[in-house]
Every structure is written in structure tokens, then in C-alpha cells.
């Protein structure tokens, strides 16, 4: 009987390890895409002898790390042709400005130049911040693996469906974004040839500048993949915790309170590590939404409906991508709040002492009671913003206000 019990425990333990490995392996695709986008200066080495886990490493000095070198190259790619173009092909855009600035040249230049600065500066700061904090991220990753390893998974089907759903979303977004980028660049090349009539040295240089600028924009569109993976994993943890409390009641609460505290600490470390990158990405998102909506209005006005279609596609995909992360953050806040309520309800039945009195040990509150009283929802926020769906709604409202102001200013712009 003892041997049978021991065997069952060993099988359960191996099954639990396999499940946690599956969750960790689910990060392989998003982190690879993030590495391709120049936002992940780490080597990703698959560990096939360990249930397909993968290992993250970073190298010093930087020239020994291809991922770090690629990150720096991505930062420099749009800068070099832009600096050259300022001195040699400053007249190249005159025709394009006249073509698209139907409501005023000054308004057009302000919007486009502001967006160019924003689209280069914000991703560069986010990349350099992560490059600077490589040691911090490795510590964070080790803590994340420990967190997943200690997660008590009770629903295999839910975990399997979660992993398949996330993998499909990551791949689908990657493919759709590439298709839109190809259409966007092909349309640009077509209009560049129409404006110039023939390609000379200045037009080739300007075209290279625009293509590198567009390439940087494409890569930036994948910047949230890693964050989505981590936040959605936190959501999965909360799903399993809620299920455990519902099935085991007070016994489940006793065993899971410490895990909730570990999860809370890990989310706080997540916010600390990615706070600056998130802030700059929000600024980038505001600039991107403003630029795309502004050009959508222009292309409709000049009856370039294919360009309008491309801009609508860019707007929808980018908004859906941002909403993906924001909705995961909101779900973490909502489900953690639900977990806190379930814990208090489970303890209030007889956990306060059976007759409404708080249980004490040696004239002190029981540790579990103290943890229950101190439970709060997990909120992904920093000193600047709360990252949830309400943030996206606020951003859209701000952009709509800016567009109204821009169009009013454009009406007065006679340049």
C-alpha cells in the first residue's frame, strides 16, 4: 500500500512538472518574435532533454551576443539614412507634401515630423532600457520559472486550450502584421515612382530612408509579445487559484495564500522591470494612432481609397494588439479581486473562530487570518498610468480630441 501511494505521488509530481514545462515552453514563440523585433537581447537555447524547456542567457561584452548586436543595429537602421537625407535630399519630399497636405503644409509637417521623432525615440529608449537591465531580467525570468513550477494545475484541458489559443494569436498577429507591412511598403514604392517618374540618387536614398523607417515601425509592432505572454500567464495562475478555492474551500485557501503572495511580488517586479518601456510604448501608441487617423482622413479626402484601406487595417490591427495586452491586465485585476473575495467568504464561514470571533494564537492573530485581511487585487500600474482597458479607452478619447484640434488648426493653415 505504501509503495502504491508513493508511486501515485511520483506520477502526480511528474505530471505537474510536465504541465509547468508546457506553460514555460509556451513563451518560446513570443520571445523568439520579440528577439526578431530587436527587443530581446538574450540567447534562447532550447533544452530538449528537459521537456522542451528553453534557457535564456546574456553575454558580456555585447559583441559576443548576436541578439544584443541586432538590438543596436535595429536602433541605428532608421538613423543613418535619415541623417544623410537631411543634407542631400531635403527637396525630395516637396512633391509628396504638396500631394498630401491638402489642408495646410504646416499642419502636415508638424504631424509627420512629430511622429517620426516619436517612432524612433520611443522604441530606442525601450530597447536600451532592457539592454541595460539584462541581469534584472534574468533574475525576473528565474523567479517566473519558480512561480510556474509551484503552480498547482488542476485543469489540464484549460491549460492546453490556453497554450494553443495564445500560440495561434501570436502567429496570426505576426502574419497579419507582415501582410499589412508589405502592402504599405508596396503602395509607398508605387507612389514614389509616380512622383519621381524615374529613380536617381536622391530618390533612391529617400526610398531607402522610408523603407528603413517602415522596417523599424514593423518591428516595433511586435514589442508587446513578451509582456502579453507574462501577463496572460499571471491570468492563467489566477484561473487555477480560483478553481482550487472553489473545489477545496478553506483547505485550498490555506495552501494557496502563500502562492498568491509570491504572485503579487512577482507582478510588482514585472512592473518595476518594464515600467519605463510601457510608458514609452504608450507614448508611441498615441503618436501612431494620431498619425494613422490623420492620414486616413487625408487619403479619404484625396480619394486614394486603397491607401485608406491600408490605414484602416493598420489602425484595427494595432488597436487590437494593444487591447490584447490591456485586456489581459484588466483580467488579472478582475480575477485577483474575485480571488480575494472568495478567500474572505471561505474564511468567514468558520475561519474567524466559528462564532464570529477572530481566531487568535497566544493572543495574536492567526497568520492565515492576517493574510486574508491584507489581501488586495493585483493591479498592473506604475506612478504614471494604470495599464488596463480603461487606458486604451482614454487614449482613443485623447486622440479624437487631438484630431478635432488639428483639423480646426488645419482649416486656418493657409500655407
Automatic annotation (TrEMBL):
One record GO biological process: sensory perception of taste
Taxonomic superkingdom: Eukaryota
InterPro entries cross-referenced by the UniProt entry: 7TM_chemorcpt (IPR013604)
Entry keywords, A to Z: Cell membrane, Membrane, Transmembrane, Transmembrane helix
Subcellular location: Cell membrane
GO annotation, cellular component aspect: plasma membrane
Membrane topology: Multi-pass membrane protein
Name of the protein this chain belongs to: Gustatory receptor
Residue intervals passing through the bilayer: 69-88, 108-130, 170-191, 211-231, 273-294, 306-326, 391-411
4Fe-4S listed as a keyword: no
